[in-house]
Fold:
Amino acid sequence: MNKQDYQFYISGAIKLGVSFGIVSLLARWVTGNTILSSPETLLKYGMVGGIGYSLMGALSLILFGMVAKRIRQSFPHHLTIGDVLREKLNPSGYWYMICILLITSLDSIFVQAMGAAILLHIVFPIPIYLGMLLFLFVCFLIGGMGGMQRIHQLASVNVTLIFAAVIIIPVYFYIQNGVHPVFEGIKLYHPYLLYFQNTDAMLFIMTAILIGFGQVIIDRSTWQRVFLLKPAKVQLTFTLAGFIWMTIPLALSSLLMIIIYSGSYDNITSLLFELINRIQTTLFVFLFILFCFSAISAAISSELQATTVLIVRNILQVFLSLTNRDKWNLTYLTSGFICVLLLVVVSIFSPSLLELLFFFGHMYASLIIPMLYIILSKGPIHSIIPFSSLIGMIGGYAFISVVGNFTAIWISFFISGTLCSIVWIYTIFNNHFNK
Structure:
């Protein structure tokens, strides 16, 4: 493929087999949320919550793998999720979904940037805005300018660092401290972590799986990887990636337990600071820091590249007649603007990453059934299908104060699902009687 062709920026130069497909997916989905939210989940909901967070990512990838096989077969010549939406939806539905994709894209990038800001604050004694400026510049070079080819070149390095950190460091700690003292310390200082009959934790797990699947099914960079995978290997690749991903939050949770078994803690930030202090070997400290920033930079770079493609290919190109050079120039401008916007927003806001995930959970949950309908249906799609997610979101947010956030997310899911079911039943009867 000609490197000057804009498709090179979108897809790179290679098709993905099973092994490298798994590497690419892990590089995308081991994120700042994985590093920071999985320990936060463990502390809030105990070991059940930690296991549940692992199941969230694993089942999300496995379930999407089943859908991805159909996507790859039905749309063999497309490159992005926006291409599929433009083919399947009428103009109003298309532009609504593009707006939703932009919102979720910026939310996802913001979450990763927040994770980077928290870790920069813990690790380096420099102003956060300066550290973030350097970090986002690196992400701009990788994802904004390098595109999919550069992301793939670094994916193997990212995954190697991830597994080196989550395997070597916990093993080293448990050899140093032993398993039994850790277990006894948890029983003494934090017995609630071992409580398994926690109904709140079970509701959290079910809701987290719903949100996780909603995130994956509308993730722009994941869709791009679907179109790069060999058709016969799509489902297997996602299934194996899900099982492998599950081990990473579990390893991080086990690492965290070595820190909290000997006493109390203030918050997740203080725990991570304590973790770095406890890693007395300089090599392991360096490995842990590399793991954190490598994982987050890979996630931001993938999201930055996919969001830029969405804007240039699926928004601007719809209105403008763009040459190859125009697309490249707009790509650099768009990705640079997003990085500057991130720098400003991260300097102003600092929400909890877990709270932010569940705040947007209504959006992710309400999009699941409409997206499945769009992917699986063969005929024309009624306008109510994409907009059912908006009705579901509004309904869910309206019930938050009455039933709580977790239950309200399920309400969002069921409202949009019910509307799609009604349209589906109506379509079947209408086609039957018109024959």
In short: The chain has two domains: 10-354, 360-435. The longest helix spans residues 128-177.
